[in-house]
Design brief:
The protein is of the alpha/beta class. It has one domain: TIM Barrel, CATH 3.20.20.80. It is built from twelve helices and eleven strands. The strands form two sheets. Strands 1-2-3-6-7-8-10-11 form an eight-stranded parallel beta barrel, surrounded by five helices. A two-stranded antiparallel ribbon has the order 4-5. The radius of gyration is 19 Å and the shape is globular. The structure holds ligand HAH. The ligand Oc1ccccc1CN[C@@H]1C=C[C@@H](O)[C@H](O)[C@H]1O binds at residues 41, 129, 176, 207, 209, 238, 295. The ligand Oc1ccccc1CN[C@@H]1C=C[C@@H](O)[C@H](O)[C@H]1O binds next to loops. Its EC number is 3.2.1.8. Keywords: Carbohydrate metabolism, Glycosidase, Hydrolase, Polysaccharide degradation, Xylan degradation. Residues 1-327 form the GH10 domain. This is Beta-xylanase.
């Protein structure tokens, strides 16, 4: 019997995957065999859940939540307050911009309704996603509709509403490029200031959209140590290891063997590091299940094939899988 990923990591942390209502069917064998936590890749975001003020669509999210329940898996909620995949109606009032009061009322109602619907089935929520600007210079917070409508305290309100809505779920601040020395300091300062004001943040989600070159291991280590110094839990929430640097538009028909080898080495080293910090991590989630099911074949370049995960296009275990399970 080949190794089962989640069994191998039973003493370390739950191993999860981002799924869709389609992939829980097409990749069921891999999911049930190797993963113990699920995240809805898109089906629990405002754009799908709450397309207009008085309409909620829980059907797709429920398919994923039901699958997690039936297969005794954890479920991470992703995400409540974000600058992307969030309908414009949240920020409009007739022909003008919604007031701060109206925007906060809608945020509260969204969070209460969505978290209320999944209460008892979600172990954690990415309450706020990607609030920090990537630019080294300028304001710490990225320009975002919630920032424009509410002001800089939109993040604090989101977490307070979330705690009121579901006191059992762990509440995460989630972001990418989270190991960049400049951005990690800004994430740290944001969460530190929230905690100092008694805002209920339970953890930091390090998305982990990495590649075979960067971030270097010492940058990952420094970010882990920096965030851990806040005394909150950590999760890798969207792990994939691209074969390309972010803005490299190179394309291949088939994954070059030497890059797959580099990727396997990289996965091995990264999981060695994560195991070293197992006391800090409460979950490691991959952003997809197998290479035939990755958003990176469509981002940042449309229809440019990528092979960032542990299982290949035919759902076979890659060298990366072996390198993180043989230790
Ligand atoms: O790695 C990035 C680079 C630029 C923008 C966003 C990201 C990551 N952003 C993530 C990726 C995919 C979405 O499905 C997730 O909800 C989002 O959190």
């Amino acid at each position: 019997m080949s190794k089962r990923l989640s069994e191998t990591y039973r003493e370390y942390f739950p191993i999860g995957a981002a799924v869709t209502p389609v992939s829980i069917d097409t990749h069921k064998e891999l999911l049930v065999g190797h993963f113990s936590s699920l995240t809805a890749e898109n089906q629990m975001k405002p754009g799908i859940l709450h397309p207009s003020e008085h309409i909620y669509n829980f059907e797709q999210g429920d398919v994923i939540a039901d699958f997690a329940l039936q297969n005794h898996m954890l479920l991470r909620g992703h995400t409540l307050v974000w600058h992307n995949q969030t309908p414009e109606w949240f920020f409009k009032d007739g022909g003008k911009a919604a007031s701060r009061t109206l925007a906060l009322k809608r945020m509260k109602e969204h969070i209460y309704t969505v978290m209320g619907h999944y209460k008892g089935r979600t172990c954690a929520w990415d309450v706020v996603n990607e609030a920090i600007a990537d630019q080294a210079e300028g304001p710490a917070l990225r320009q975002a509709p919630w920032l424009t409508a509410v002001g800089g305290d939109y993040i604090e309100h989101a977490f307070r509403y979330a705690r009121e809505a579901d006191s059992t779920a762990k509440l995460f601040y989630n972001d990418y490029n989270e190991c960049d020395p400049v951005k990690s300091k800004k994430i740290y300062e944001l969460v530190k200031s929230l905690l100092e004001r008694g805002v209920p943040v339970d953890g930091i989600g390090m998305q982990g959209h990495w590649n075979i070159y960067v971030p270097e291991l010492d940058k990952i280590r420094r970010a882990i140590e920096l965030y851990a110094s806040l005394g909150i839990s950590l999760q890798i929430t969207e792990l994939d290891i691209s074969l390309f640097r972010f803005d490299d538009g190179t394309a291949y028909e088939k994954a070059p063997a030497e890059l797959i080898e580099l990727q396997a080495e990289r996965y091995g080293r990264i999981f060695e590091l994560l195991r070293e910090y197992k006391a800090l991590f409460t979950g490691i989630t991959f952003w997809g299940i197998a290479d035939d099911d990755t958003w990176l074949s469509y981002f940042p370049f449309r229809d440019r094939k990528n092979w960032p995960l542990l299982f290949d296009d035919q759902h076979r275990q890659k060298k990366s899988f072996e390198n993180i399970t043989n230790f």
